[in-house]
Write a structure and sequence with these properties.
11 helices, elongated, five-stranded mixed barrel, alpha+beta, 28% helix, 337 residues, single chain
Amino acid sequence: MYLVRPADFADLPALERLAQQAGVGITNFPANRERLNDKIASSRRSLQTDVVQPGNESYLFVLVNTNSSEIVGCCGIDAMVGVDTPFYSYRIDEVVHASPQLQIHNRIPALFLCHDYSGTSRLIALVVDKAHQNPTAMSLLSRARLLFMARHPERFTKRLFAELRGENDKHGQSAFWDALGKHFFTMDFKKADYLSGVSNKHFIAELMPRYPIYVPTLPEAAQEVIGVVHEESSQSADILLNEGFEFRGYVDIFDAGPTIEARTESLHTIAQQKMGKALILTENSKGPMHLISAGHLETFRVTAASAEPQVAGLALEKTTQETLGISSGSRIQWVVL
């Protein structure tokens, strides 16, 4: 079985290993011990803080293989980006160039630097050990965040977005970065990606071009990767798209990976989740797989298990209750997997 719970300082070595394995392109989960420790500390502070409206809180969760007690994945949520510094994206739009005299009317796609997502909640850092990238583990880890948001809606905004990892080659080189960003930052993609993850973002505002970038002026290789998801992130992308996220014309300023967004309340897991009592099954469950959560903030837990909906609640096997640390009559939350 798998279990999702809030991250703790004892998880730091496992998070370092996952960050190293994740490689280049996941800027919000850098392979930096100090930065990862800060993320754990921030998550613990956020869980211990009374919140009436979202601010600069962040939440980090880990995926545990209960058979071995090994940490095999992690994910997170930023309650609101752009609190201290603007959160930058490229908005894809069109610029019209026309000449009535020549009877020419062209609509040219262009990239506009913007911070339209500042003040919005963000899903971050979905990383799973390659040996555990199966549909159950991936869906459990990704959607556990949404159950947490459904349990604590006051902590998040009504709009939610996620940045999907953009294309880069086996050497960690980005065609989009090489065509654009490198000329303004005078550094390779790996270094820019790393600095973005471990430092403040002031350098982005200081160095990025202020004017629209006309897409046809970029090399063909760079144009082809705009809005394209890295093949290693396709599974996590599909989970979010199936939840109801949509691409609305925004891409990352470093690798041009797509940004997807949704109204929080309309997402499948949040709209379909139910709450009630945990009931005990006297025999093995023949019901469908469910995502089941229990606990409050620091004691929040989510697992995936077979369960049987009943009028009074959700009937669980004893092992499932033990995994969640609950007993019959405990208040739980669930949605069909």
